[in-house]
Amino acid sequence: MNSITLIGLAAACCTTLAFIPQVRWILKTGNVDGISVGMYSIFTTGVALWLLYGLLVWDLPIIAANLVTLLLSLSVLVLTIRHRLRARKK
């Protein structure tokens, strides 16, 4: 593995791991007040497209980063929608 790929993987780790505190916060507190469903919807779509692009060009850092980021951003989106729907029913 060359140094350029390692830089890409390091960048992928940093940007992907940044979502973990948000997911943990939502799971721990149930607080989704500051989450924009619109932003996360657009972002998640973009990440899915980046993943597709990475698969088409077979680029490991792009595939790895966007696969994990997709799961994490989709988690934030689903948890936010679920919490808000439950709050409306109350």
The appropriate CATH architecture is Up-down Bundle
User: Order of SSEs, N→C?
Assistant: HHHH
Query: What separation lies between the terminal Cα atoms?
Result: 54 Å
Into how many domains do the coordinates divide? 1
Q: Largest sheet, described in full?
A: none
Broad structural category? mainly alpha
| Number of strand elements | 0
Overall helicity: over 70%
Strand coverage percent: under 5%
Mind telling me the C-alpha Rg? 15 Å
Give start-end ranges of low-pLDDT stretches: none
CATH topology: Monooxygenase
Number of helices: 4
Average pLDDT figure: 91
Shape: elongated
**CATH class bucket:** Mainly Alpha
Task: Describe this protein's structure.
- The protein has one domain: Monooxygenase (Up-down Bundle).
- 84% of the residues lie in helices and 0% in strands.
- The longest helix is centred in the C-terminal third of the chain and has 30 residues.
- The radius of gyration is 15 Å and the shape is elongated.
- The N and C termini lie far apart (54 Å).
- The mean pLDDT is 91.
